[in-house]
Design brief:
40% of the residues lie in helices and 17% in strands. With 338 residues, it is α/β, with parallel strands linked by helices. Helix 1 packs parallel to helix 2 (42-50) and helix 1 (13-24) crosses helix 8. The longest helix is centred in the N-terminal third of the chain and has 21 residues, at 96-116. 49% of the residues are buried. The model has no long low-confidence stretch (mean pLDDT 96).
C-alpha cells in the first residue's frame, strides 16, 4: 500500500505542482483546501497530468473540530506538507489580524491533531521573508533571522518557532521547514499554474495577464533601490523544481535520513534577478513586449535577497534545474492556455 500524504492548500499554485510530483513518486495524496485562492477544477487537471485524482476535503483549517474530524476519517496519514496560508505581503500589511489568525491557527490545529493521532512527520512551507533584509548576501541557513518586514513574513517566523518548540517538547516529532525564495512558472503541460483569484499580488501572474491584455500595464514597485538597475532583486525558482524539493523532504523524513528532528533549508536557485531583468528575460523568451511603468515602493517589500543553496544541494541531493528563460516561457504558455 502506498504511503498517504496530507497536502494542505493542495489546489493552490505550489500545492498542486507538489501533488503531481508526489503522485508521480508513488504516494497517495489527500488534499485539504478551503478554495479561498484556488479552484476545485484543479483536481481534474492534476488527474489529467498524473492519471490520479487525489482525495479532496474542503474546509478551513482554522476550524479545530473539522481538523480533528479529518484525522479521525483519514487514519493512515504518514506525513503532512502544510502549504495552506494567506501569502500576499502587501495584503498582510493592510490586514494583519487576518494573516495571524489564518496562518498561525491553521498550523497549531494541525499540530495538535498530529499529536493526538500520532502523525509525526511535517514539511512546512516557509519563506525567505524570515531573513528580513539580510546584512549579507547570499543568505545561508546560518544567516540570522531578522525582524520581518511584513505581518506575512512574521507569521512564517512564528510558525517556524512553533514547530521548533513543539518538536523540542515531543521528540517523536520530525519537521523540515523549506524556506522558499520566489516560485514562478508552470507545469510543462500548461494544465496547472499560478491562477490567483482577483487581482494578482505576485509579479509573474500580473506580468502575464498584462501581456495577455487583461491588465493595462505592470507596475514596477520602485526604481531607486541600491541595485544595478534600481529595481528589487529576488531569487526566482521554477515551481516544479520547488515541488520536487518537497518530495525529497518527505522521503528524508519517512526514511529517517534527517540529522536533526527539526531542519530547515533554503530552496532557491542561488541567483539574484531584478524585476527589470525579469521583464527583459520574459521578452527574450517569448518575443512579447511587457507594458510597464515605475511606481513608488510597496510597503513590506525588501530591497534584495537571494539564496546560497549549497546546503540544500548537498544535504538533500536536490538542485533547481530550470533556466530563468525556460521558467518564464512556461508561465506564458500557461497564461495562453487559460
Amino acid at each position: 500500500m502506498n504511503k498517504q500524504i496530507l497536502v494542505t492548500g493542495g489546489t493552490g499554485f505550489i500545492g498542486s505542482h507538489t501533488v503531481v510530483e508526489l503522485q508521480n513518486s508513488g504516494y497517495d495524496v489527500v488534499i485539504v483546501d478551503n478554495l479561498s485562492n484556488s479552484k476545485v477544477e484543479v483536481l481534474n487537471k492534476i488527474k489529467e497530468i498524473s492519471g490520479i485524482r487525489p482525495k479532496f476535503e474542503q474546509f478551513d483549517l482554522t476550524d479545530r473540530q473539522k481538523v480533528k474530524d479529518f484525522f479521525q476519517k483519514y487514519s493512515d496519514i504518514e506525513a503532512i506538507i502544510h502549504f495552506a496560508a494567506s501569502k500576499a505581503v502587501g495584503e498582510s500589511v493592510e490586514k494583519p489580524l487576518m494573516y495571524y489568525n489564518n496562518n498561525l491557527n491553521s498550523l497549531m490545529n494541525i499540530m495538535e491533531s498530529m499529536m493526538e493521532f500520532n502523525v509525526s512527520n511535517l514539511v512546512f512551507s516557509s519563506s525567505c521573508t524570515v531573513y528580513g533584509q539580510p546584512d549579507c548576501l547570499p543568505v545561508t541557513e546560518q544567516t540570522p533571522r531578522k525582524e520581518a518586514e511584513s505581518p506575512y513574513g512574521n507569521t512564517k517566523t512564528i510558525c517556524e518557532d512553533i514547530i521548533r518548540d513543539t518538536i523540542k517538547a515531543c521528540p517523536s516529532f520530525k519537521g523540515i521547514a523549506l524556506r522558499y525564495f520566489n516560485p514562478i512558472g508552470a507545469h510543462a503541460t500548461a494544465k496547472i499554474g499560478e491562477l490567483p483569484l482577483g487581482v494578482p499580488n505576485n509579479l509573474i501572474p500580473f506580468l502575464t495577464q498584462t501581456v495577455a491584455g487583461i491588465r493595462p500595464e505592470l507596475s514596477v514597485f520602485g526604481d531607486d533601490y541600491d541595485t544595478a538597475d534600481g529595481s528589487a532583486i529576488r531569487d526566482y525558482i521554477h515551481v516544479v523544481d520547488l515541488a520536487k524539493a518537497h518530495v525529497v523532504a518527505i522521503e528524508r523524513l519517512l526514511n529517517n535520513r534527517n540529522k536533526e528532528n527539526y531542519e530547515y533549508f533554503n530552496v532557491g536557485t542561488g541567483n539574484g534577478v531584478s524585476v527589470l531583468e525579469i521583464i527583459k528575460s520574459f521578452e527574450r523568451a517569448t518575443g512579447e513586449k511587457v507594458p510597464h511603468k515605475i511606481v513608488a515602493r510597496r510597503a513590506g517589500d525588501i530591497e534584495k535577497i537571494y539564496a546560497d543553496t549549497s546546503f540544500a544541494n548537498e544535504e538533500l541531493g536536490w538542485k533547481a534545474e530550470s533556466t530563468l528563460d525556460e521558467t518564464l516561457l512556461s508561465a506564458w504558455k500557461w497564461q495562453l492556455n487559460i
